[in-house]
Amino acid sequence: MTSTVITRIGELMTVDDEERVLRDAAVVIDADRIAWIGAASEAPAADERVDAAGRALLPGWVDSHTHLVFDGDRTAEFEARMAGQSYAAGGIAVTRDATRTASDDRLAALLTARVREARAQGTTWIETKTGYGLDLASEERSARIAAAGVDDATFLGAHLVPAGRDADDYVREVCGPMLEAVRPFVSWADVFCERGAFSPEQSREVLLAARTSGLGLRVHGNQLGHGEGIRLAVELGAASVDHCNFVSDADLDALAEGSTVATVLPACDLSTRAPLAPARRLLDAGVEVAIASNCNPGTSYTSSMPFCVATAVLQMGLSVAEAVRAATRGGAIALGRATGEGAVGSIAVGHRADLHLLDAPSATHLAYRPGMPLTAAVWKDGHRAP
Ligand code: NIG
Fold it and tell me: What confidence category does residue 386 fall into, taking pLDDT thresholds of 50, 70 and 90?
């Protein structure tokens, strides 16, 4: 067991209950946990000393929405979209075909490489979903690979009704044998509740079956138009409803009164040229907001949380502090990981030592210098990421 003191931190954003910002601070890591936080002049000695030289230290990003278990490429679809076509989710079948034909080893290697890319930009906790298998064997395999490669795995068998399948029949398979097959590997279930994907009734069926199996609930909702996804998520106590591009006043009221986190996906909104999710309006209404990358080959082929944070500030009207919170603690709340033993998403004694040292004196630089390589160092569970 080694201890590390990171000292001479120019700006330490704890993102804890008090949202403290400390100057000339230090943090001590003991094994995989944060053991001490305070003034650099009072820091206890440790086995190893890291001189932050005035740079900013944040919690590692918590990316609560990705789809990283896939093979194949959708550049042509992206080009068509940039030429004016709109996103309609049909490309999911293209990725499904490429994913089904990939070997287990290849899918696992692709996932590992994607997690490494995310880590290099400061992400220390990642959720990922199945949903490019869409039959029992392929979904089970995706769930197994996801569970081995990321921190939180989610079953998204209800991503798209496979062509040629009767929707209700497919939903029965998702709720029955598929759910049973993936159950050992996942802690969450998700459903794409949208016109062209799953109706509110079908989504409810999937979510109720998942809840009966002991899984936590997540929903893709209100991405392509107004609908019932957000209100269904709140009604069933889902941990998070993600996308939220089309939010009515009734949706807003439901979110404000409920406990479901609204997860916005800025990179997806840009890549699909969708109306930006109204993150400012959500925050002003008192809704807990998370920011995630939604890294996937169709709508958001980036895992860069700094890019998402910069976009949330520059385009969605969030302050830097609000965007950083949404991309750290917000994601942790959306995954039920913000409190308790081994919590993530904030810098507090006893929490996991998941830390992100910026190559900048303050978090403001994330938005002030968008697109610049501002990650100086990353610790995951107390270990310096390569
Ligand atoms: O979150 N909206 C549904 N699912 C993904 C996109 C899937 C795809 O097009 O491959 C999303 O944006």
Answer: confident
**In sequence order, what E strands does 81-175 have?**
123-129, 152-158
Residues 6+ apart with CB under 8 A from 232: 193, 200, 203, 204, 207, 219, 221, 238
CATH architecture of the domain with residue range 3-59+345-384? Roll (2.30)
Query: What pLDDT, on a 0 to 100 scale, did the predictor assign at position 90?
Result: 86
Query: Nearest C-alpha to atom 1 of ligand 1 is from which residue?
Result: 294
Please report the pLDDT score of residue 307 as a whole number.
98
Please report, to the nearest 10 degrees, the dihedral formed by the alpha carbons of residues 328, 197, 199, 83 taken in order.
80
61-334 falls under which CATH superfamily?
Answer: Metal-dependent hydrolases (3.20.20.140)
Using the 8-state DSSP alphabet, how is residue 208 labeled? H
Q: Identify the pLDDT of residue 181.
A: 98
> Which protein residue's CA is at the shortest distance from atom 9 of ligand 1?
298
Q: What is the pLDDT of residues 158-188, one digit of tens each?
A: 999 999 999 999 999 999 999 999 999 999 9
Residue nearest atom 5 of ligand 1, based on CA coordinates: 299
CA of 129 from ligand 1 middle (Å) equals: 11
pLDDT in tens, 106-131: 999 999 999 999 999 999 999 999 99
Task: Indicate the residue type of 295.
Answer: C
In the annotated binding site for 4-imidazolone-5-propanoate, the residues are 74, 132, 159, 223, 299
Structural domain spans, the chain: 3-59+345-384, 61-334
Question: Helices 136-149 and 92-101, interaxial angle, to 10°?
Answer: 80
